[in-house]
């Protein structure tokens, strides 16, 4: 018996999406105005996208880029780890994400094979202010190789805040 098909989330009507997107962009522009002294911040707009990029002045803090698309998807570049074409589920996520990165609530977790030392997976975790975490992961080794190895070692890197108090 075949499993039921996976249903895609219903897209918002265009006018609702554009209104929420405009509010989200305004929140990110306000974040940029508040943090322009601690990071190089660039924003760009095109017919199909809006983008913000932040490179902190503080060594050890996490750079990021958010790309919002009119097709109701987004991409994130977080310390050179790229997560593309994600569906926009929550509009408040983006301002929370920027604030969390600014506060240094970002971890990079590398999972290595205990037997070989080979990198298997890279996970980026951003702890958001509402008690949940955004997690992006990228597999480096194919899953077929992982099934034979059970012991793993994790390497954790925590990023610093953009501000020094």
Comma- or semicolon-separated keywords:
alpha+beta, 3 helices, 39% strand, single chain, globular, disordered N terminus, 165 residues, 23% helix
Biggest sheet details:
5 strands, antiparallel
**Percent of residues in β-strands:** 35-45%
Give the uncertain stretches in residue-range form: 1-8
Number of strands: 9
Total of helices: 3
Alpha carbon gap, first and last residue: 60 Å
Give the CA-based shape. globular
Strand order, largest beta sheet: 1-2-3-4-5
**H and E string:** HEEEEEHEEEHE
Report Rg.
Answer: 18 Å
Structural class: alpha+beta
Description:
The protein has 165 residues and is α+β, with helices and mostly antiparallel strands. It contains three helices and nine strands. A five-stranded antiparallel β-sheet has the order 1-2-3-4-5, with helices on one face. A four-stranded antiparallel β-sheet has the order 8-7-6-9, with helices on one face. Strand 1 (39-45) and strand 2 (49-56) form a beta hairpin. Helix 1 packs parallel to helix 2. The radius of gyration is 18 Å and the shape is globular.
């Amino acid at each position: 018996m075949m499993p039921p098909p996976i249903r895609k989330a219903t897209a918002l009507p265009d006018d609702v999406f554009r209104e929420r997107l405009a509010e989200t962009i305004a929140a990110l522009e306000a974040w940029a105005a508040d943090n322009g002294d601690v990071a190089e911040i660039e924003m760009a707009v095109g017919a199909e996208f809006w983008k913000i990029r932040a490179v902190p002045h503080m060594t050890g803090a996490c750079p990021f880029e958010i790309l919002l698309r009119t097709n109701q998807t987004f991409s994130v570049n977080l310390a050179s780890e790229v997560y593309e074409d994600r569906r926009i589920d929550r509009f408040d996520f983006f301002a929370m994400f920027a604030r969390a990165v600014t506060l240094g609530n970002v971890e990079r977790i590398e999972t290595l094979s205990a037997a070989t030392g080979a990198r298997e997976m890279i996970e980026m975790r951003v702890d958001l202010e509402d008690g949940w975490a955004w997690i992006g992961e990228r597999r480096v080794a194919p899953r077929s190789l992982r099934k034979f190895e059970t012991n793993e070692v994790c390497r954790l890197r925590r990023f610093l805040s953009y501000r020094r108090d």
